[in-house]
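Final report, Chapter 2: Outcomes

The project's central promise was a pipeline that accepts a single protein chain and returns its three-dimensional structure in a standardized token representation, suitable for archiving and comparison. That pipeline is now operational. To close this chapter, we reproduce one record exactly as it appears in the project archive, with the input sequence first and the structure output second.
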Amino acid sequence: MTDKTVAIAFPGRVGVFWNSEPWPIREAQNIAREIEALGFGSLFMPEGGGKNALVESAAFLAATDRLVVGTGIANIHFRMPIPAETGARTLAALHPERFVLGLGVSHAPFVEETMKGTYGKPLATMRTYLQRMDSVPAEIEEGARPARVLAALGPKMIELSGELADGAHPYLVTPEQTAATRAILGPGKWVISEQAVAIGGDARDQLRRAHSHLEFYSQMDNYRNSWLRQGFDESDLVIGGSERLARALVGMGSPAEAAASVTAHLDAGADHVVVQIAVESPTTDPLPELRELAGALQL
């Protein structure tokens, strides 16, 4: 879209969110190529400590021709702000309008227990990080500035994503929350929402996969608080989420029904939606379900 401060050349309005960390990089590149061939417009990946998301992004950008690649998200506790900014600018210089730097504050248990770091107040920590990024001189890869989006769930972080970034990357939210994010940011910023789906198998199996997908997140305060703000209550916050929560956050049913959960975010104001297959395990090939979904979305 051309009405944004920083352009992103999405070939289409629906992309893919995929945890590629457990995969050998050459196999992951092959999957990225097929994702592009299927007609999806992007590939976003998380950063859980298994691999460096900026290095993975470089590999996927090099392996494809038009696919937009984004970090969903790069953990700000993994790297200092200045190398984060210069690394992102380098990717943007090599692949103009095809790299999106998604940033997030991660979660207190991971930062403090696994990384042995300090988890400060999320809003203040992110603000300081972004200000340090902005201190990099303009002549470093001059003119190459990637779009920068934040993992923003609460209203104050959403506001910050409009103030010091180029938009937000909502994750595990309802279409109503996508609409709320758009209302805060206005039309000039990017809203790139994630939508999980479980297709194939029977209804009971799909619900099982949805609960499994939510298991980790349902134990993280950032998501629990987000879901409470979205209108859920404590009864929905059991491990793996209640059935009501699972059905609200994970598109289930036929490929067409799952596709409808994706387009609901577009209708709510998202510029782009990345669809995540709720897989059996991190090493499950997402391509069979993505092929079905591509057909249902008429990519």
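Archive annotation: The radius of gyration is 18 Å.
This record, like all others produced under the grant, will remain available to the consortium after the project formally closes.
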